[in-house]
Amino acid sequence: MAPRVVVLDYGSGNLRSAQRALARVGADVTVTSDLAAARECDGLVVPGVGAYAACMAGIDGLDAGPTVVDRVRDGRPVLGICVGMQVLFEAGEEHGVVTKGLRLFPGTVTRLVAPVVPHMGWNTVDWPDGSALGAGIPAGTRFYFVHSYAPPAVVAGALVATSVHGEAFGAAVESGCLAATQFHPEKSGDAGAALLANWVRQL
């Protein structure tokens, strides 16, 4: 039976493209704001585009934070994508304003220090040994990014894949059942499909 995946609809993110990408690699995917479905599925995807504060406001408006936190506490898989990754951290700082996140990863998301921001386009990712997301993906493989803010390149207690745009930053983070990518796997062609297939296989 195909693993049941919920893409959480809280008003932000490329929901349909994520749904299609996950379905292509064998998941039974539902896009919904139903928190019971988000609790009960085999894998929960937290998408997100735009501003950190707006994404957190959407999550809070749905009261979805406790559902995500409870899943992780219970060892049930969660995948964050783009700003959906960023909100898993303790906080995000935008325009001098700090917004509290879900605090599942330590650290703060900050603006990239680079000559050109946003970072938009294809970039390589350096995968750490033991990464489940990056398993079997050749070195030098490119993924699609579009962001102005990013998590740190070192996250205590987690495996971090890094990319460089002006400075090194966390491109993917994994800790137990919790995984997240700063890039968009659903827009990353075969490379993104390989990563999503790795995640779905774990479910």
Give a quick summary of the entry:
The protein is α/β, with parallel strands linked by helices and 203 residues long. It has 6 helices and 13 strands. A hairpin with a 2-residue loop joins strand 12 and strand 13.
Descriptive account of the structure:
The protein is of the alpha/beta class and 203 residues long. 27% of the residues lie in helices and 34% in strands. It has a seven-stranded mixed β-sheet with strand order 2-1-3-4-13-12-11, with helices on both faces. A four-stranded mixed β-sheet has the order 6-5-7-10, covered by helices on one side. Strands 8-9 form a two-stranded antiparallel sheet. The radius of gyration is 15 Å and the shape is globular.
Query: Which range does the strand content fall in?
Result: 25-35%
Give the number of DSSP strands: 13
Mean pLDDT comes to 97
Looking across the biggest beta sheet, what order are the strands in? Answer: 2-1-3-4-13-12-11
What is the CA-atom radius of gyration, in angstroms?
Answer: 15 Å
The major beta sheet can be summarized as: 7 strands, mixed
Uncertain spans, ≥5 residues at pLDDT below 50? none
Separation, N- and C-terminal Cα atoms: 11 Å
Count of helix runs: 6
Judged by helices, strands and strand pairing, the structural class is: alpha/beta
Instruction: Work out the helicity level.
Output: 25-40%
Envelope shape: globular
Task: List the secondary-structure elements in sequence, H or E.
Answer: EHEHEHHEHEEEEEEEEEH
